[in-house]
């Protein structure tokens, strides 16, 4: 009976001591960011406190992506001292949900590595599909349609479309009762390879100067349709 | 004696499970970190070499890494300057070419993300991700 009790006590003590030895305690290890349409970066703050009785040295901070930088205020954290790691995610021309991680390594043997997680949901005012239209050698140069969906949270009155190649004509039509536009792309010339881009600019009340693009490619052997 | 040892082990396991269950209940509505499955077709360096000149190499690393060194003939396509770089890339692209995207090393995600956008947004097929990335290519060509 005594052996059993001793075994139980030793096991429980080991379990509890293991927890107590973890010196850096993080306020949060996950950040859920929702940057605005015009934001260039999204910033997360990961706060920690050294609850142990010895200083903890942060030996390295490594982000999973070149698009994320992590700034550390202090390398050595004294007992009872607090601090934070500031992670800056550069949005660039990324879209959708982005999951990035930051690995923090310390000289604390009980928790030598901590993974901080950053999730950024990047708003997409317009969804252009397809954003690449092409006519191959055997195609007739009939018009093709590009659909532009508007994020329900925004009010886009109209869109302006300009082509880098004058032979590519475009017509924009809103879809009734839908937050959607259709762009009809009409090639008017054949006999030469064409690589053009269409700049799609939304006109909206909010301050959000962002352009979207679709690309057009025409093979020189594609023919105009018979009249 | 053996039975009591088993009971003690079960008791310890139970104690270990308690905080885990508590955490699962407490964070049940917490955000999910599960990455959606990325349909990147991985390809080995040896395989790309067998494809010869039909390969269109795309470097998904940040600008400064591309400027420092890159696979000869590779074009840049990263998500920092997606629109501009994609436009330049599509001029070089043709349906007969195999597009191989790479980033720094095996563990980086940029090549998978670029490959995914090329498939999903531009509708390209024949898009692959180089296993081992730039690190693998550099080691093989030292």
List the topology elements.
The complex is a heterodimer of chains A (227) and B (142).
Chain A: H1 2-20, E1 24-26, E2 30-33, E3 41-50, E4 56-63, E5 68-72, E6 76-77, E7 82-90, E8 96-106, E9 113-122, E10 126-129, E11 132-135, E12 144-150, E13 156-163, E14 168-174, E15 180-187, E16 194-204, E17 212-218
Chain B: H1 2-26, E1 41-43, H2 45-50, E2 55-59, H3 63-68, E3 75-76, H4 82-92, E4 98-102, H5 110-120, E5 127-130, H6 133-140
What's the gyration radius of chain B in Å? 23 Å
* Apparent shape of chain A: elongated
Sheet bearing the most strands of chain B, described? 5 strands, parallel
Biggest interface, residues from each chain: A-B, 32 and 34 residues
Strands ordered across the widest β-sheet of chain A: 2-9-8-4-6
Distance between the termini of chain A: 100 Å
Order of helices and strands of chain B: HEHEHEHEHEH
| Helicity range of chain A | under 10%
Instruction: Tell me how many strands of chain A there are.
Output: 17
Kindly state the percentage of residues in helix of chain B. 40-55%
Mean pLDDT across the residues of chain A is 89
Number of DSSP strand runs of chain B:
5
Number of helices of chain A: 1
Uncertain runs of chain A with pLDDT below 50, 5 residues or more?
Answer: 14-19
How much of the polypeptide of chain B forms β-strand, as a percent range? 5-15%
Which structural class is indicated by helix and strand composition of chain A? mainly beta
Report on this model:
The complex is a heterodimer of chains A (227) and B (142). Chain A is mainly beta and 227 residues long. Chain A has one helix and 17 strands. In chain A, a hairpin with a 7-residue loop joins β16 and β17. Chain B is built from six helices and five strands; from the N terminus they run αβαβαβαβαβα. Chain B has a five-stranded parallel beta sheet. In chain B, α3 links the parallel β2 and β3 (75-76). At the A-B interface, α1 and β17 of A face α1 and α4 of B.
Short description:
The complex is a heterodimer of chains A (227) and B (142). Chain A has 227 residues and is mainly beta.
